[in-house]
Amino acid sequence: MNVHYLSYPNHLFMNEENKAYSLAIGFFDGVHRGHQAVIGKAFEKSIEYGLKTAVMTFDPHPSLVLGRSKEEVFYITPLEQKIEILKELKVDTVFVVRFTSDFAKLTPLQFIDSFIKKANVKHVTAGFDFTFGAFGKGTMEEMEQLSSGEYTVSVVSKQAYEGDKISSTRIREALKMGDLEDVMFLLGRPFMLSGVVVHGDKRGRTINFPTANVKPTEGQFTPSTGVYAVKIQVQEKWHEGVCNVGYKPTFNNPDEKNLSIEVHVIDFDQSIYGEEVVVHWYKRIRSEQKFSGIEALKEQIGKDKEVAIDYFKEQ
After folding, report:
1. Do the first three CATH levels of 2-164 and 190-314 match, i.e. the same topology?
2. Per the UniProt entry, what are the Gene Ontology biological process annotations, in alphabetical order (predicted)?
3. Which residue of 154, 158, 175, 262 is 20 to 30 Å from 290, comparing CA positions?
C-alpha cells in the first residue's frame, strides 16, 4: 500500500504511474462499520471502472485547527493505527492531507481542483453527511456539480445499528460506559490500544499478579476506568489477560489522579519493558474499587482472572 502525505499550498502530488483512483473520502476515525461501507462502495466502483482504490483522510482532527473543541481530542484510531487498518482492508493508496489553517480556507472548488482532479480521481465516494471546503459549505451534491465530467460520485446513506447512526461519537460514548460488546459491533473488531510497556511501581509482583504497565500512544482514547478481559500482542504473539484501567485507590492517595493501564498477562513471565504492544479489549468485568487490604485485592484479582479465562473459552 502506498501512503502519500499532502499539504496545502506546498503539497507536491506526483502520480508517476499515472494511476486513476476510486476514492473514499472522510476523516474515518475508528474506521468503523459506517466508514467500511464507504470504503466498500469505493472498492465496488474501482472494480466497475477498472481503477485503483484510494482513501483520503485528514490529520490532525479539524476541531484542533478550527478551535471548535475546548477539550483535548483523543482518537479512536491514531493515524498510524488507521493506516494499518486500511492496509488490512487492502486499500491500494492512502492520501493523508495535513489539515491546516490555510487548508481550511479553501473553497469547495479549490479543494476539488487541488486534491481531487490533480490526484487523477475518477470516482469519489463519501458518507451522506460529508462536507468539505471553508466552513464545511461543500456538500456531496456540490462535489458532483463541480466535477466538470472528470469524475463520478457515490453517496453512502446513514449506516445504523439499533436505530441510531454508527458514528465515532457513539463509539467514544460506549467506551466511556465500558460497553465493549457494543464497541466491538460498531467497529467490526475489538477496540485496539497500542503503546509501550514502561516501568511502574512493580507492586503486582509482590502479590503474585505481575502486570505490564502500558503507556498508550499519545492522543489515543482510553476506555473508562475498570477491569477488563483483554488480549495483548507481545512480540507478534497474542496472550489473554486482565487489564485494570484506573488510579489504584487501594494504594494511592485519592487526590492523586495518575491514570494507569496495567495488564496481567495470563501464564506469562517474561520481562517486556520497552516492548511495543497492542491491547484488544473484549469485556468489562467490573468497576475499579478500593479494597480493605492486599488479601482482599488478591482474592478479587484471582476472580477477575477466572472471569477472563472463562470468557475467552466461551469465545
Report:
1. no
2. FAD biosynthetic process; FMN biosynthetic process; riboflavin biosynthetic process
3. 175
Confidence of residue 239 (pLDDT cuts 50, 70, 90): very high
Q: How many CB atoms lie within 10 A of CB 193?
A: 25
Q: Phi and psi of 204, rounded to 5°?
A: -60, -35
Other beta carbons within 10 Å of 299? 11
CATH architecture for segment(s) 190-314: Beta Barrel (2.40)
Q: What is the 3-state secondary structure (H, E, C) of 125-181?
A: EEECCCCECHHHCECHHHHHHCCCCCCEEEEECCCEECCEECCHHHHHHHHHHCCHH
The answer on pLDDT for 50 being more than 90 is yes
The per-residue pLDDT of the chain, averaged, comes to 89
What 3-state DSSP class applies to 204? helix
Query: What number of residues does the chain have?
Result: 315
CATH class of segment(s) 2-164:
alpha beta
- Grid cell in block for residue 304: 477477575
pLDDT in tens, 217-238: 988 999 999 999 999 999 989 9
Q: Exposed, middle or buried by CB within 10 Å (0-12, 13-18, 19+), for 210?
A: middle
Position 242 scores a pLDDT of 95
The domain locations on the chain are 2-164, 190-314
Q: Which of 192-196, 250-254, 268-272 has the lowest mean pLDDT?
A: 250-254
- What sign results for the dihedral spanned by CA atoms 179, 181, 186, 192? positive
Q: Is the pTM of this model over 0.70?
A: yes
Helix (H) or strand (E) holding 87: helix 79-88
